[in-house]
Amino acid sequence: MVTRDITVGVDVDAPGELLWKAVTDWESQGEWMLGTVVRVTHGDGVGIGSELAATTGIGPLGVTDSMRIVGWDPPHRATVVHTGSFVRGSGTFTVIDRGPGASRFEWGERLDLPLGLLGALGWPVISPLFRLGLAVSLRRLALRCAAEAGQTP
Known about the structure:
alpha+beta, 7 strands, 27% helix
């Protein structure tokens, strides 16, 4: 199995508590995450053992990523394990306080690439697009949180 790590972060002009609330409101993530709809499929979504499903794509071209929360340290870190047949590995959402009214969000993934050698060969092509999609989504998140906090980013 081939594993690859990717981390994307963004500084946010909003308090860490507000940012945490935004990133762990799973079912509203589609408002800032490109082409993705997230739903809680088991549990309450706010603790270890809860399960989530994130469908990314357009129409029949979507991929559903099922996850289980395995780490929960509010308002700083949530860790999931990807439990689906296509997306495998783990992901971590980290909120870092940067002072009054300022924080940072980092989204890290450790992905077990599908398709063996083909997945490993395709990663250099897919990873820049994946990173760009995450960066655009995180910028949208930062703008949303700054607006909610009443600050201009």
